[in-house]
Amino acid sequence: MTDCLFCKIIAGQIQGRFVHEDHELVAIRDINPQAPLHLLIIPRRHISTLNDLGPHDDALVGSMVRAASAIAKEHGYADDGYRTVLNCNSAAGQTVFHIHLHLLAGRGLSWPPG
Ligand code: AMP
Ligand code: ZN
């Protein structure tokens, strides 16, 4: 996708440091952090929204969740707790149309979210 912000970051066309990267995912710091730790776990392959996932993406989504869990643990938040969020389309506030899992930690997170 030539006009996708996260595809550009993944391709190195926009400066950004990867907190984690492997063959299928990268993790970056959110530019507007909502918690002391706020990362985005992003698949290298462009998928616009959760509505575009198919059965062949099950392993990829599992890898995203497992990466979030591993990174939270590395940063010392496994016991206190953390939140993962996938926003889909406008009612949920999705602004970047390349799926990404938010990982938030380091403060009390109220429920329900706004
Ligand atoms: P969402 O609202 O779920 O689509 O989340 C998009 C997130 O991307 C927001 O939390 C933004 O702060 C974040 N974001 C936007 N541009 C950048 C960027 N260049 N680098 C890192 N995070 C970004
Ligand atoms: Zn993309």
Short descriptors:
binds adenosine monophosphate; 114 residues; binds zinc ion; five-stranded antiparallel sheet; alpha+beta
Task: Give, in order, the helices and strands.
Answer: HEEEHEE
Radius of gyration: 14 Å
Q: What ligand species are in this complex?
A: adenosine monophosphate, zinc ion
Q: Give the class from helix and strand content and strand pairing.
A: alpha+beta
Percent helix, as a range, is: 10-25%
Largest sheet geometry: 5 strands, antiparallel
How far apart lie the N and C ends?
Answer: 31 Å
Shape: globular
Secondary structure tally, helices: 2
Question: How many beta-strand elements?
Answer: 5
Which spans of ≥5 residues are poorly predicted at pLDDT below 50?
none
The whole-number mean of residue pLDDT values reads 96
Proportion of strand residues: 15-25%
Strand order of the largest sheet: 1-2-3-5-4
Write the layout of secondary structure elements.
Elements: H1 5-10, E1 20-21, E2 25-29, E3 37-43, H2 58-74, E4 82-85, E5 101-105
Antiparallel strand pairs: 1-2, 2-3, 3-5, 4-5
The structure holds adenosine monophosphate and zinc ion.
Account of the protein in words:
This protein is α+β, with helices and mostly antiparallel strands. Helix content is 20%, strand content 20%. It has helices at residues 5-10, 58-74; strands at residues 20-21, 25-29, 37-43, 82-85, 101-105. Strands 1-2-3-5-4 form a five-stranded antiparallel β-sheet, covered by helices on one side. The mean pLDDT is 96. It binds adenosine monophosphate (AMP) and zinc ion. Residues 1, 4, 6-7, 46, 98 line the site of zinc ion.
